[in-house]
Amino acid sequence: ILFVPPLARGTGSGHLARFFELAKNLGPRAAIYVPEQPLPGERGLAEILLAYRNDFDRVRVVSAMPATPFSLIVLDRRKTTRSEYERWAALGTVVALDEGGEARECAEYLIDVLPRMNTKLLCNKREANVADLGFLSLPRNRRRNPPEEARRVLVSFGGEDPASLAGSFVELAVSGRYLAPESMTVVSGALRKPGGADSFDGVSYVGPIQDRKERLADFDLGVTQFGLTAFDAAWAGCAVLRLNPSRYQERLARLSGFASIGAGRPDK
User: Fold this and answer.
1) Is the pLDDT of residue 124 over 60?
2) CA atoms of 217 and 146, how far apart (whole Å)
3) Using an 8 Å Cβ cutoff, are 128 and 109 in contact?
4) Are 207 and 188 contacting, i.e. CB atoms less than 8 angstroms apart?
């Protein structure tokens, strides 16, 4: 089984982390494709290895286009073009996860784990073969009681945070005195660009947290964007507040029942 993750800059790290977890569970019959020589605008083997060195020790990585077919190829690239799909379809049966690109029309099997909207803005309306939040790998640790106030706040916008949403939220929370700086912990993802949010006295800034989703139950509030972390935090028993990079993700957040404070910039 070959997993093909999204490697384009700006796509975050949630889908890549999902593949690492799946590959570790499946063992030697699974591999992840991370090219040594990336396409323009994509991350290559050296950069991914540096960010996820602990995971690389436990999975098999393929760094060149396979010469022989795989039984199954799993695409989780968010938006796969038709030409990219055809390249992989020549090497095996293709399953697409949460696909929003041209490949949604032609993939042999579609699985939607996260909710999605069928609107005229999308390039297609093909329904998935299976759509189920039950495929999420949720935290084992859960709070016993729901939070009554935000004493401990986790601010986490994925492995990359290309829109610097963490910094925008912390600035608003501190300047507006909505939250005490000492209550907030900001997680810097493995692929996050240098600089940005690390400039507010009293706020705790930490690097990537090993097994982060099992630590979510320690917090009262999780501030994040639409994606896997929001569902993990909700399952762990945290209150969840969303700040989304785009209007589309804003609509998805509201459709999923999450409280939101805007798209792009937080609305006080």
Assistant:
1) no
2) 10
3) no
4) yes
